[in-house]
Design a protein that fits this description.
2 domains; ADP-ribosylation fold; alpha+beta; three-stranded antiparallel sheet
Length: 289
Amino acid sequence: MSSPIAANSKKPDQDEGYIVYHGSLTRGITSFNPGSHFGTFKQALVCIGAHAFIDGELPILPTLYKCRLKLKKNNIYRIVDWGSPNLQAALMAYLNQMAKSDLEKKNGYIDKLQKSGDSSETIAFKLLNKEMLHRGHRSLPCGNELNFFEWEPSSENINIILTINWDTPTHQSALIAYLNQVALNDRKKKSKYLRDLQSAGTGSEILSLEFLYTEIAQRGHRAFSYHNKVESIGKSVMALYSEDVEILESWEPCRKEIFKVFSKNIQRLRPPNLESAMQKAVQFKDGII
């Protein structure tokens, strides 16, 4: 399945403020997988500790990667921490937040139209065109009906997504009917995504990434930022395209530094066996393992 790719409009002189860190037990990484997480220096150290002392990954070769995100601000969409590193969870969190945002926008439109008086039809017309353009849709009146359809210049087929009664035509009624139908279609699409992912088994993460690419390409998003309350409080980023991450340097952090930051934040990680995790951390600090 092919997926559209959102254009990376990053310019070289816009890198300041996009320095992030990634903690790993793997040395020699030259490119990160789509969906990799990045954050602050402390968050990266905690991740190293979590992999080594909680997940039990071996061998323990702690490596810090300092990276630059080659992105513009509008390429990074902020969402609520979805509580999982998985792409499937990120996809659902993104769709849920976009649905919430669309509902808030519709309510804002209604409020604006109610306050606009005689100019409400002009404003509704502009808003309707803005929403249709955003989604690649067009409208066409036919008798006493108004049809909305997906517009693809290279396709001869027309997929009508909505038909409304046009006996008493107003742009306000067309706008609200259109937004309601779009929201309904989005809910149906989300349900289909879930069914497909449940059927995909071990391939669900690959399929989730394809679905994510389809969704974010429509909006110009290439990464998600979120307020990380687990590894260490601060902003973290999930990068969805490998080419957006430039590795600047890597090194092995100090054992005592890893232990200090990990032990301070271990309660946030909620390990199934706190005593065992701390014992491993102490042994690592003391050079026993």
